[in-house]
Design a protein that fits this description.
19 helices; single chain; 419 residues; mainly alpha
């Protein structure tokens, strides 16, 4: 299952380090970080050892180093240099991995193993989170419930049971990393996995676990992406009877997902967005909309250069206080949108480079509905979260998107021999 190159030990170790890192990625950021660092070092050694010129056919991945340079340049006009420098350190993979992949010719089967290892990591993380949820739920029930027999105690038991369910959904179910990142990993693995026929019980079980995982994570953005991805896959089916069956299954699944209590909670908490009296009682769903509002106001004030990579969050937090967005201010939320985040950090230039990356990715992946669904997953995830401020998102995007941007991407069926 691991990679082996008979003539290049460095390349073998490079890919195997990445495989282990992707396996550990859903289990928290501390575990995979050393393996990502090792893979970067080995990749750089491979560049100098091979003595080859980089692949000009894939020079568009140089947009990532350009993005990194623009972020670094914003340190020149930021006051909070410490925070800015820390983010630059976390973002080094945006500079290094795309450069490494210009000197590495990979075959599709080798790179697809990244998804296999990520899938295994997701399955492990699901059962780890499920074990935590069971333990926390039973602990809560034991604390809240008295074992004396009475109607009052039976009622308190039911209340404790209902409240114990909260440990199985949303942020409480994802103790290892942010649910938004986990949802992104699951959706990408599903888009790759569902390309193949579900012809064994093991495959069916894996798909069920991944869908259950998505349901329990209760990410509204992930639900939206799943709906779009499902529709794209359904209308790619040529057989009419199979398509009708899949539409029926899609509608039944949609009913189940929309009955998630967090979906109704989301609707009830954003419908009063325009009422200032509700700001103090805001929740994470409404906070995201308020973050976008405050970010757009700030962008209008400094559209050319932004506020610098170190000051962007500081001025955003001050804006929350000025606008009375108490929940956002107390939790010091970022923009919750990577396009707005980079606009705040670097102004219009960084925003243009990030948009260009995704325009070129859309062009590259328009070949099939399956590939385009992958593009939509990546794009929409950046619309709902500032994915490139945490190492989980930075390192994942710095590996996956450059590989997708290459002329023969990891979803392509063509094979490129390693040289």
């Amino acid at each position: 299952m691991f990679y082996k190159h008979d003539d290049n030990l460095i390349l073998s170790l490079f890919w195997n380090s990445l495989y282990i890192a992707f396996l550990l990625l859903p289990l928290g950021i501390n575990l995979p970080t050393p393996f990502f660092i090792v893979s970067i070092v080995l990749g750089l050694i491979n560049i100098f050892k091979s003595g080859k010129k980089f692949d000009l056919d894939n020079k568009i991945v140089l947009l990532f180093p350009l993005y990194f340079i623009i972020m670094s340049a914003s340190l020149l006009y930021t006051d909070n240099v410490t925070d800015g420098f820390n983010l630059i350190q976390r973002s080094l993979s945006l500079l290094l991995f795309p450069l490494i992949f210009l000197f590495v010719k990979e075959d599709a089967s080798t790179v697809r193993k990244l998804f296999d290892f990520l899938l295994l990591g997701l399955i492990i993380s699901f059962f780890v989170n499920f074990s935590f949820a069971i333990y926390n739920s039973f602990s809560f029930i034991q604390e809240e419930f008295s074992f004396e027999i009475s109607i009052e105690n039976f009622t308190s038991f039911l209340d404790a049971l209902i409240n114990g369910w909260n440990y199985f959904i949303g942020d409480e179910f994802s103790k290892l990393i942010n649910p938004s990142y986990l949802s992104l990993y699951i959706l990408l693995v599903l888009s790759y996995y569902l390309k193949k026929n579900i012809d064994t019980k093991l495959r069916l079980l894996i798909v069920i676990i991944l869908f259950l995982y998505l349901y329990l994570l209760a990410s509204i953005a992930a639900y939206m992406m799943l709906i779009i991805m499902s529709l794209l896959l359904i209308f790619s089916i040529s057989n009419t009877s199979k398509r009708h069956l899949m539409i029926l299954m899609f509608l039944l699944g949609l009913i189940v997902f929309l009955n998630n209590p967090r979906v109704f909670e989301f609707y009830s908490k954003v419908r009063d967005l325009g009422s200032p009296i509700e700001y103090d009682n805001s929740t994470s769903e409404k906070a995201r909309l308020l973050s976008w509002d405050a970010s757009i106001r700030l962008i209008k004030e400094a559209p050319l250069l932004g506020y610098g990579i170190g000051d962007a969050n500081d001025v955003l937090i001050k804006k929350y206080k000025e606008l009375g967005y108490t929940y956002n201010y107390e939790n010091e939320y970022n923009a919750h949108n990577q396009f707005l985040q980079i606009f705040l950090q670097t102004g219009v230039l960084g925003f243009i480079v990030l948009v260009m990356i995704f325009i070129l990715l859309a062009i590259r992946m328009r070949r099939s509905r399956n590939e385009f669904s992958v593009f939509l997953i990546l794009f929409i995830s950046l619309m709902f979260e500032s994915m490139l401020v945490r190492f989980n998102g930075i390192v994942f995007f710095s590996i996956v998107i450059p590989l997708l941007l290459k002329k023969r991407s990891i979803l392509s069926s063509r094979i490129i021999r390693n040289v």
